[in-house]
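To whoever is covering the structure queue this week,

Two jobs came back overnight. Logging them here so there's a record in the thread.

Job A:
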Amino acid sequence: MNKINLFCLPYAGGSAAIYSSWKSALMPNVVLRPIELSGRGKRFDETLYKNIDHAVNDVLNIMRSEISKAPYALFGHSMGGIMVYELARKIREEQLPAPFEIFISGKSAPNIQRERKKFSQMPINEFRKEVLNLGGTPKEFFEHPELLDLFLPILKNDFRLVETYNFIERNSILENDLTILLGEHDDLTKEQEEGWSMLTNQKCSTHYFNGGHFFLNEKTEEVIAILNKKLNQSKPQSALQAELF
């Protein structure tokens, strides 16, 4: 079986560590490659991003030397989902080897406008309540001042990145298969969920999970089952070329 790199981007406030449990459940030929964003994990001392474009350029620089060596796929949840979409656009713009599958999880389609809450501008008590309602963030971060001092600037900056992101329609249609993963009880309209199909000229399939915005953490086995099935069904371009000779 051909080796496949699976590059994963985290949600707001998350680090590469959120994907650490996936390795044992993925197919043996899938190499888990979680991307550590600036300002967290082993990159804690590095500067936080100014905007989504800044983040995407940084991620592409990390991946650049790897994406020409082996077939690869992209996965991102929530903030990571919008970064994956913009990353795919950047890869096409630079005429680099394309991902053969893109997984976007827990994110509304960017081409469908929606009113956004300004989490990053909320007072700390309101911000705490809203973030805890979303799930995904351990309440301990808000109960221990030493953790809060470290974590709050990262989390608030990540929310700011998403809140200030502007979708640009020009060259917005991807040439990649899209797999969209969504929680049945997430706060999204049907239009926001289905809008992803307008952003690719290839296949777009949507899978729903019993859960809210952070179904990813509650339904991990089901999510990975979808990934394994899709990665097994898809044939990377290099493999297709090999069969022709």
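Job B:
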Amino acid sequence: MDFGLTSEQQLVVDTVRDFVERELYPHEEAVERTGRVPPELGESIRRKVIELGFYAPNLPVEAGGGGLDQVTFTLLERELGRASMALTVFWGRPSGILLACNAEQRERYLLPSARGERLDALAMTEPGAGSDVRGMQCSARPDGDDWILNGTKHFISHADVADFVIVFVATGEEDTARGPAKLITCFLVDRGTPGFDIRPGYDSVSHRGYHNAVLAFEDCRLPCAQILGEPHRGFDLANDWLFGTRLTVAAMCVGRARRAFDLALAYAAEREQFGQPIGKFQGVSFKLADMVTEIDAADWMTLAAAWRLDRGLPANREIASAKLYASEMLARVTDEAVQIHGGMGLMSDLPLARFWRDARVERIWDGTSEIQRHIIGRELLRPLGA
């Protein structure tokens, strides 16, 4: 593995960081205070990213995207992680699962998403089915050439600003060695479809302004043409395309940790107690040493997993390890950054209290820490027949 960045990768890092600091940081305090992003601001961000030529960087060129390799895209996500998610959502990164679109769906969903004309949201989680995807109750039954959807999804990130959702529902059952298991099908559902309602979600303490939503399906009729992939093969589709979201979480955790660390380091060098900068006290300098060591470790774990993807190597365990370590690292680093700042760390004058609150959800969404440990353990034991 080459540990240096290419000139193109360095350009991506510099460009994204400059945009984040110049275009997004100034709006963070208002978003934190009001809990919302004005529609005109979101549209302005999206337009500026398109003009910059960085919209849909994760999609291949033939699909209208930027065609970045996994390592370079991970570096981009790392820089976006420095800013409020309520704002970075408008730096469009369409779900990679849209690459499974057929020819007709490609024109209606994939290409408009790559151009920034449509925004998608992914819907799996339900009130009674989070990590247990096969336990979902939201279902669809065939009715002639159509399917009738009924049920509820919740915790659906940014569905309030999405033009369509990619929703997974139960469409039958199959026998397995472990007993009956639900068959899953993936549907593309447009906002405004009769029987489909997007409702306000819960008031989360993490990532204010980046809303979750509740999706309600009440006899929502969809033609077969709205199925993404094949009927009853949605679980395979998810396994093929959605693993990368965990890598995105890891990368963004690294970026946010770097920003928190930078603030703590500067404060430790400037704040004086007992006639000298507090950074000179071992109790503070050792904290800084541990923080940067953990950040570097998470950074390289994340990039190493992306490097494996670029080379077509198995990376399931490595991605799970990166997500697990980076999300838990962020919790420790933000907590120590608050501690170094003392009482000021908890005041709204600084963004540290926000980083501290935001860090908590990273260990839950896109697979809890417990799920990541399960994946890692399974990948280790399977080759041994256990």
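Note for Job B: Residues 195 and 220 are 4 Å apart (CA to CA).

Please reply-all if you pick these up so we don't duplicate work.
Q.
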